[in-house]
Structures are given as C-alpha cells and as structure tokens.
Amino acid sequence: MHALTNLREFLEVLRVNNQLLTIDTPVDPSLEIAEIHRRVIAKGGPALLFTRVKDSKFPVVTNLFGTNHRLELAFGRRPLDFVRGLVDLVEHSMPPSLPTLWKARSLLTQGLHVGLKQVKTAPVLECCQRPARLSELPMLTSWHSDGGAFVTLPLVYTEHPDGLGHNLGMYRIQRYDDTTTGIHWQIHKGGGYHYFAAEQQNKALPLTLYIGGPPALMLAAIAPLPENIPELILASLLQGKKLRMVADPDGGHNLVAEAEFAIKGNVPPHLRRPEGPFGDHYGYNSLQHDYPVFQTTHLYHRKDAIYPATVVGRPKQEDYFIGDFLQDLLSPLFPLVMKGVIQLKTFGETGFHCLAAARVADRYPREAFAAGLRILGEGQLSLTKFLLVTDGSIDVAHFPRLWQHILERIQWDRDLFVFANVSQDTLDYTGPSVNKGSKAMMLGLGQAKCRDLPQEFTGSLPQQCSRPNVYLPGTLVVQGTSYADSPALAAELAQFPGVATWPVILLVDSTEAATCSLQEFLWTFFTRFEPAADIYGREQSVQRFHVGLQPPIVFDCRMKPWYTEILEVDAATKQKVDEKIDQMLPAQYR
Length: 590
Description:
The protein has 590 residues and is of the alpha+beta class. It contains 19 helices and 29 strands. The strands form six sheets. Strands 5, 6, 7, 8, 9, 10, 11, 14, 15 and 18 form a ten-stranded antiparallel beta sheet that branches. A hairpin with a 2-residue loop joins strand 25 (465-472) and strand 26. The longest helix is centred in the N-terminal third of the chain and has 15 residues, at 78-92. The radius of gyration is 25 Å and the shape is globular.
C-alpha cells in the first residue's frame, strides 16, 4: 500500500473508492455543516467535501474516518501487523540472537522507515499571515448551545520546557478573535503537563496548532499513548514512511511539512479566559469554564489548503471509529505495559472513559484486582469511571456476553469496589463538581458460575416505577419518576420485596429509550450515574473497611438536576438543512 503523506492524497484514494462526496451547494460553517455531517454519518455515508463555505475561501472536508472501510483505506493492515510483530519479537526473542534477528528482518527493515526527516522546503510554508487572521478559517459551530466557533480537529503540538519530549494532542480550540483562542487542556493530558511545568517557571509555553496534514498525524494526536511516548513517531509508523519536517523561518518549533495549516504562538502563564460551552463526545453539553489562552503570532498554510473538521456529539460519531481503530492498533502493547492484562476494551458507545472492560490473569488470590489497579493508574485510562474485570475465556468487547458472565460470578459483598473522592474526566458532570467524582471496579472471576440469572420478570414494582424490561439476563430496566420529584426512589427500589430476586436493576427516565438498542442501553447506563452516589443495595455492610452490598443492586441512571443538557439539533438548524438537503445529498444519505 502506498504511504499517504498528505490530506489530498487521501482524498484522491477516497474519490477513487467512491468514498468522497463533493458538495458545491453554498453552506454555512455555523451549525449547517455539522447537521449535514451528522445525517450522513448516521447513514454510514461518505466523507464530505464542501467547496463553497460561507465567509471563507477554504473548502471544508468532514467525516474522513467515519467508517472502518475508510480507516482501512487510510492505513491498511501494515501498522497493525508491525505492532503485533514487534510485541512478538519482544516477548519471544529476548535476548536477541542472530537467528531471531534474521527471522525478524522484515520487521526491522520497516523500523528503518520510522522517524522524522528534515527537508528544506515544504507546502505548509507556501503562504503566511502575520498576524494571523483566524476569522478567515471556516471553524465550525456544531451545536446551537456552543459558545462560538471551534477547531474540532486540532493537532496541538508542545514541547516540555525542560526538554523532556513533545506532545501532539487533540485539545479543542475556541476562536475568540483573529489572533487569540482558548485551549481546553484537560487533566491527565500531556499538553497540560507541559503547560503546568512552564507555568511553574513563570514562562509562556510555545505552541503550534496544526489543522490537517497526513491522515497519520490526525490519528496520532488522538492516540492514548503513555506519557513521554512521542506521537510524531507513531504518526510515522502509521504512515509507513518518515514524517517530513521543515524549519520555521521565524524560528521555534519545526513544522510538519505536509500540514494544511500551522498556527504558531504562545500560551502565557497564569492567564485564563472562559471557554465553552461545547457539545462534547459524551452526548451532553459541557459548560463554560476558565482555560488557558493561545496568543498567535503567525499562520502558515498551503496555497490550496483544505480545512478538515469533525463533529462530536451523542455516540456513535466519527470519533467512535477512530477510537476502535486505535484500540486495535495499540492493544498488543497492553500486556507489555500492564502485566497481567490480556485484553482491554474501552467502549465508544459511552464516550470511552465511562466504561472499560479487561480480561486478566488471576493466578493467585485477587491478582485480578491488582491488574485492575494497573489499568486505573495508566495514563488516560486513569479517567475510566467503571471497569469490568474477568479472568474468563471471553471476548470482553462483546458487552452482553461479558455482562452476563460477570453477573453469574460476582460476589457482591467483596467484588464491587467503589473509589470515592478521586479525579473524574472533565467532561463527565455526574460528580459533585468538575474533575471530581468516583470510579468503580467490578470483578467476575472463576470458571464456574455461582448462579443462574433470571430472564423473565414476574414480580411487582413500587408505585413510582413502571415499564419493566429484562434487557439482558439478570438485568431489569425500570422506568421511574424523575429524580427531581423522587430523589430517594433508587434506594427504595433496592428495598422493595417485589424485585428481591434480581441481581441488577437500572432505574431510568424512559425504559423505551434506554432499551431500543445496545448503543442506547450502554449510553444511558454508563453516562448517567456516579459510582459513589448512585449505586444502592438491599443491604450494606462494612467488613475490614470494605463496603459490601447485597442484591438487588440498583444503578440510578436518571438525569439529575445538575447534569448538563442532552445534545439535540435545534429546530431552526433542522429546518434550514431540510430545505436544501435534497440538492446536496443522494437519497440514501439524507
């Protein structure tokens, strides 16, 4: 497969494979492009190239990676095979010998193409704005509740002020004016660590914001790599070729030669401005908070630059497919980094951080617990809110089978661990305040099951509950009155005799909405409860400082008054797109 070294090469591949739809109808980057994108991705449709964008000379392309097929077109099997081969070499060929090195010669040859290559001229330097005119870029406003226009595929490059490596991450950028933006550096992220170190020294942190470039560069910025693992090297690996870099004539960071846009500047210490709101990938509105400010100095772009963007919101969106691809790519590394972890899956249906599952070794008593702690202490995985752990011979990516397997084996008085008063993902508003909350680990161990699970409901419900639905074995979904009206209902339900035989009960606002698909079940379940506040048992006991529960275990997954709004398209935008959709899209994508 030919290495794709820039965006337009990828677009040509998509065009040849009927995976690119060009839209010449005039469109507005405020709300309109995002709604068109959402309709197309919901139908499994192609990438979209908008050639006539209001108030900008730059075309916009979206939905580049919104199917598994397009990800395969971009990267093929080579990077996955390389990572697996590398892991196999480490596991079975250490210490290396001449025969093992000879056997791995193809892998080592590929390794010679991984790295950076300095060049003297580059397309990214073709045009320069000094000062930058950010208002000329077609940044998207995706939801009517958003606080402004955002770069939704930002590739944010920083270097540690003490020379301890670089970070390329995807941290959303809100445009304030022609020369300044907000930068949403979340906790537990590499760029945020760099800024913290610079701020401790009372120094501004140089920043380069890339928009567009090689497909590999975009995915490398999203990859949840351990700290100090260089993302530019991952980009080279994904690309299958050394990543070309060029010096900035004004000094500072070298630039990715094939980027579409490169915006240079600094983030001063101790300066904050309100950033947001923004409709995020959990499917809810994240609120306005104070974040650092990016002060630009100049902007480079290709003379024929194309502006790539994405749209996030209620799963499944484009980030779901990217996340799954990166998990497949990096999963062979997990056993090397985290001993005892055999398989690991984070679920894009829940926004990734809300739910993870692991298959682990349990060779000595409670080794599985130790493996779970390794996961909860590793990089971005430390933001996981709910972790399912088993030692069974089961594919943990298949949630229905995994959930049943665990419920058949869990000992509720010892195998559910809730860790209160810990950090929580910035975008998760189920906790008591921003960045604060709890997490839980749930174990289902052993080969033999301890119980059969009920699959039919024949009991009774409290007056404030209705519409029981056995969605999965042992799991009863029940509709209740609102949390605002009945905050104690979950605790009362756990005590109610008519449900005493059920291991798990989900208390929701709408049974129909929560059980219409596995996607909606997972999203409703895991994005609408906080472990330390919303799990109830019929009985609770404390032994050796461990809190044990007795079933039924009720998860209160109703919307709480302090939760932010569920993202929905506003009526005006829907009508605006409805009026022109027929002239833009073939019938199968509307």
